[in-house]
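Help wanted!
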Amino acid sequence: MTPKRLTKAALSPSLSGENKSMLWVIATLSVAALPQLALMPLHLATACTLPVLWRIFAQLKQWQPLPSWIRFTAVGLALVSLAISYGGLFGRRASVSLLTIMLALKLLECHRVRDARLVVSFSFFLCTTQFLFTQGLIMPLYGAITVLIGLVALAQLQRVEAFSCTATTPKSSAPLMAELGFSLRLLLLALPVCIAFFVLFPRWGSPLWGVPETTLDARSGLSDSMSPGSIENLFMDDSTAFRVEFNSTAPGQAELYWRGPVFWRYDGRTWSSSFYGRNIVAPSLPEETETSWRYSVQLEPNERNWLFALDYPTAAPRDARITLDFQLLQRQPVTQLMQYSMTSNPNFIDSPELQMTLRSMALELPPELNPKTREMMEQWRQETPQDGPLIRRVLDWFNQEQFHYALNAPLLGSQAIDSFLFNTRTGYCEHYAAAFTVMMRMAGIPARIVTGYQGGWYNAAANYFLIRQSDAHAWSEVWLEGSGWTRVDPTAAVSPLRVERGSIDAIDQPRHMLDFIWIRSMRNSMDAMEKRWNTWVIDYNHQRQSKLFEGLGLDQMRPIGLISLLFAILAVLGLILLPLLLRTRGPSSRDPLQHVWQKFLKRLKQAGYPARPSQGAKELAAAAAVELPEQAEHIFHISDLYNRFRYASEPPALQELRQAVKKFKPGRSG
Amino acid sequence: MTSQALTADRIKSSTGLGARFNHWILERVRQRRGSPTLPFTLEYRHIYVMPTMFGVWFGVLLATTLIGGLNFNNNMALLIGFLLAAIAQLTTLLAYRNLVGMELSSVRAEAAFVGETAHFRVYLRNPEARHRFALQLNSAFASDTSDIEANETAVLMLKQKTTQRGWLEMQPFSIENRFPLGMFRAWSVIIPASKCLIYPRPNPNPPTLPRSGRGDEGMARVGEGEHFHGLRKYRPGDALRSIAWRASARHDNLFTREYESPQQEACELNWYLMKENSVEEKLSILTAWILKAERQLIPYSLELPTDALPASLGPEHRDACLKLLALFGQ
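Answered by r_m:
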């Protein structure tokens, strides 16, 4: 190697033959990348796994490194397939995948301590990027395991580096558990400092740069259109949509209609929102009264703009607006857990007057579709000219005819409503809401569809409602003279259980193989823990930090104040931890005899006679006796006792020696 | 120590900022503390702790994570970031603790010839009941690492190049460790007072040994040789073939035959009888002669302008002669 090529990387100690440390490095990366792999397309996940497997075998079987053209080709291929799969290399998902795949490929040319350290520290980074996607209760466990394994890897690498100047690295005989135990101790010792920092480190009130951009992450949840089957799919999903804690009295189960996307436009199959509905702000908002419901919502990230509230919200949370059709829209998609407080007044008349444009939009139907329904509705309109009785009649018809509330509704043809109402008669809430709305429009009553969630599971122990994706629901609203937009839930006419007990009780088919009642109830109880975690850790932010210190009587905590408090707490922690860490142990403290003897030596030393390591007890006594003649007898007594304890076949009680040493007070001599 | 690693250390010690910092520390230690009297115990004021390159890099990565976490108020990222930062901070204490209390008991070095490597053996004693991990000695030219068990002493070797005869002063070195994660380095600088005697380089092709001279004045040397000297009692370690079996059979004891070298074979190494001009060349040849005479078991005397030693043989005589040569004119 010529001197010019002596780069720093070339000088870092080599890892060849260092199987143990390298395997720990690989383990760190594998654990850190695991959640990422689960979400990647299959071919990319394979591309990440192959280099890791190659590296494990190469390490164990002493394979030669791959030629550079193979490595470069692999990197090129990975970049191209990544760009194709994600439509670019930017965006949260794509860039984290890029990091994962590059780290995996780095293993192909990781032959020195420096490279291995790079992989481990980037694995920690990769671990934190996972939290952009989920921060559930399982994630701290994942983080802790990654850190534990990574620390072992770093410790091993440090040993390799330190012993690179000698011929061999002494094999540390410590078993696997001891090494993990060491990391665990390190982690636990660091935990108090970590918590102090977490609580006290000043948070930023608003981000310095943009929030993460909207992603195309497939999240289940309500979407901005509705077609047959779209809500039914959510029924399978047990994940949490949001949690609600009431500060006032909670409404009854049948009143828990959590309003989400509202749809006006219908093309014969799919319902979608209207431009007006989304963009015009509500002209008047309800007043807050004594009987209003006050509650706070903890919304899980759904990558959409909708916030959910009961009818009718009196004020929008920060950065959100209330639209004409009382959707609650956040300016940015909800990509993180979000908490907001709401007040809803149910006794409010939405739009006592209906504008012409809105009325015509609420009556619009694709022409020439569903002729049988249209014929029936025209006939009923003639028989029942008033709006109220007509609605009653339709609902009664749903209730009395053989309609079924069930999953897996048969496919509907192009005349969707006709075939639903007169042939299949089996469907989920969106079928009934759609059919009812269309029927109303045919009868000349303005109607629209509201989607959202209905009901919720009340956790009595923690006093909150848990709303899952499976609680997703769709219902109708009709505009009536005098009462404005009025909620009508045709599903309730078919299956009253749906509204009273929730969707899972209303449908008695099991949804999948593991759908047991006890699993559901266990998950429900576990959720209280998750809620607490969300409240105290995930959603701890600037406002909550200020609030916390106001609660402690430390209002107006400026960042300076927080930092000084932080350092005060660190100092206290330091005072507790430092002596533990820096305590020195005298030689052989485990041998009680030696312990007493050391005490004796210490006293001798104080008296100006330090013992030399080469001296045995007898020689020491003889020499010390010359130095301290007035103590000679005592010294000989002690050394004699010591020897008897050490070597006599029947040693006397240790207490005697202890006493003798205790009495030995030669005092300090100049 | 491979040659590559040697180059590595030299490059490490000559890179800009780090070199200047090390130099500054060294000067500071030289002024404040000077050479320690051994045994020397490392106390808190002798120990420095600074991040390594990896530590700095890790810090940058952590700062990035934390700023990102703060910006997006991603509390899990903040938790992990703070945890790793706290652990990194903790390792400064652990590195310090791994070093503090160690005792530098003594440094020894055996004489070497110019061109050979001088070996300084550093005795590190661990007076406490805890294991010390991967303690490293680093000088500008060499390093050595060892674990040290509780209450044990380890001997670490520092090599040094020899270029001229005389006393070779030991280079300043550091006792350091990067335990446990390699992010921080705790070290103490030692400016040792130890020296190593360096003999002149033996001339590879010396003239033949001067066998003339005052050899017959010397005493007959008892030991190995060609002429029978007498019998003495057997001592353990005597070669079997030198046992006088027949004589031993007549007594209860074993007897060993002793031989002697003839007096005439002693040689005189005399500065004034040498033809070479240069001082160093003369010293080099004299060195080679001494080694040769020792190998051939010929007693030799040495006469220099400054000193003279009577004819003798054996390691002590050899070392005395070589020392005279090494320090000649100094």
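OP: Thanks! One thing I noticed: The mean pLDDT of chain A is 83.
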